[in-house]
Design goal:
single chain; Serine Threonine Protein Phosphatase 5, Tetratricopeptide repeat; elongated; TPR repeat; TPR-like_helical_dom_sf; Kinesin light chain
């Protein structure tokens, strides 16, 4: 309030006052027009206008006389007639400057001429025909647009398919080239180790540790190239040399027996591998102990023999021992622990032991997660695939 007193010319108050003045002036003007329309005929006749003026301004006033009310009714009829005349003039004006539909409506209802009605109906039909023609053209254009859009999509899909096919073909060629290069490297390694074996045989003789080592390396080269017969023959040569020089129960002999068992396993000959790997495990347990890395590797192959023979219960017991030793050696953040857990989960799945299988699948997933392995790694994808199959069961 103090601010308004200090600023008497406040803009907000001034605007409110101006709006009230404008509304009051507009209302007074409307009342004056109404009074003028009603009282004009009686003013011309010199009659009293007090009662009529009071009824016109205050229709609910009950003090007016019956004559005044009759006069007011007559004045109202005159007012209606005047408004009708003004409406007719407005219609005539609109018919001169309005649209075709406005002329049709105004002529029909203002003039009431049947001829105009017929003309209006013809014009309406003409307009409907034009609208129908435009709609047909629009539908045709829309259809052509859809066809063009579909062709464009088909062309884009065809281009994408061609590009994808080209990329797949290119990747396939690269993969073939890589396999060819790897095969060539393995063949070169075989040739290299064969030359070394021949050189050491000439230099050191047939029965010598260096000759046995060269034969063992040659067998590893053959095994990488999946030449199982040549690999087994080279491993047996190394085993025969080491057994002759050191004995059949030494670590060198166990090394050769382990390699021969792996070769037979990969060649799908588990029965031949069983005796070899059993002997290797017994030698390594005696010489190295059950908690050594080489011992647990041989025992893992021993569990693989049982699995290849279809003895899932025995394979599960052996894999559990392998898992316990590997967890003690490497803790739970090593890939060998995850691989063993996943293998054990698959073994239990074959035995329809769903709960145990789910437990070891979760253990393998936890190990991979702790290792920070990406989710799109082939090992992770294989684990997820095996676990999904377990859920389907």
């Amino acid at each position: 309030q103090d601010e308004r007193d200090q600023h008497p010319h406040n803009t907000h108050d001034t605007n409110d006052t101006q709006h009230r003045d404008i509304r009051g002036h507009r209302d007074n003007h409307r009342l004056q027009q109404r009074h003028q329309i009603i009282t004009t005929p009686y003013r011309n006749e010199g009659r009293s206008l007090d009662g009529i003026r009071r009824i016109a301004l205050f229709p609910s006033d009950k003090t007016a006389s019956g004559d005044d009310r009759t006069s007011y009714s007559q004045a109202t009829d005159i007012t209606r007639t005047t408004r009708t005349a003004r409406s007719t003039a407005a219609i005539a004006s609109a018919s001169a400057i309005g649209s075709i539909s406005e002329r049709i409506t105004m002529k029909t209802y203002a003039l009431g001429d049947p001829a105009h009605v017929n003309v209006g109906e013809q014009q309406r039909r003409h307009l409907r025909a034009q609208a129908s023609t435009h709609a047909t053209v629009y539908e045709e254009q829309a259809g052509l647009l859809k066809v063009a859009s579909k062709q464009s999509r088909n062309n884009n899909m065809h281009d994408q398919y061609a590009h994808q096919h080209h990329l797949q073909h290119h990747l396939q060629q690269l993969h073939q080239q890589q396999e060819h290069e790897q095969r060539r490297q393995r063949e070169l390694q075989q040739t290299f180790h064969a030359e070394i074996l021949a050189s050491r045989t000439v230099t050191y003789g047939v029965i010598h540790r260096q000759t046995a080592k060269a034969a063992f390396d040659q067998g590893c080269a053959y095994l990488r190239n999946e030449a199982f017969e040549e690999a087994h023959r080279s491993f047996y040569s190394a085993y025969r040399i080491w057994s002759t020089m050191e004995g059949r129960t030494t670590l060198s002999a166990a090394k050769a027996l382990d390699a021969m068992a792996e070769t037979n396993l990969r060649a799908d000959r588990p029965d031949k591998a069983e005796k070899q790997i059993e002997t290797a495990v017994s030698i390594r347990v005696r010489e190295l102990g059950p908690w050594h890395v080489d011992t647990v590797e041989s025992f893992n192959k021993y569990a693989g023999v049982a699995l290849r023979q279809g003895n899932h219960a025995l394979a599960a017991r052996r894999y559990e021992q392998v898992l316990a030793v590997r967890m003690a050696i490497f803790t739970q953040c090593h890939p060998s622990v995850a691989v063993t857990a996943q293998t054990l989960a698959n073994v239990y799945k074959e035995q329809d032991e769903i709960h145990k299988s789910q437990t070891f699948f979760n253990l393998a997933a936890d190990v991979y997660t702790k290792m920070g392995m990406p989710s799109q790694h082939p090992t992770i994808l294989g684990l997820i695939k095996d676990r999904d199959r377990l859920q389907e069961i």
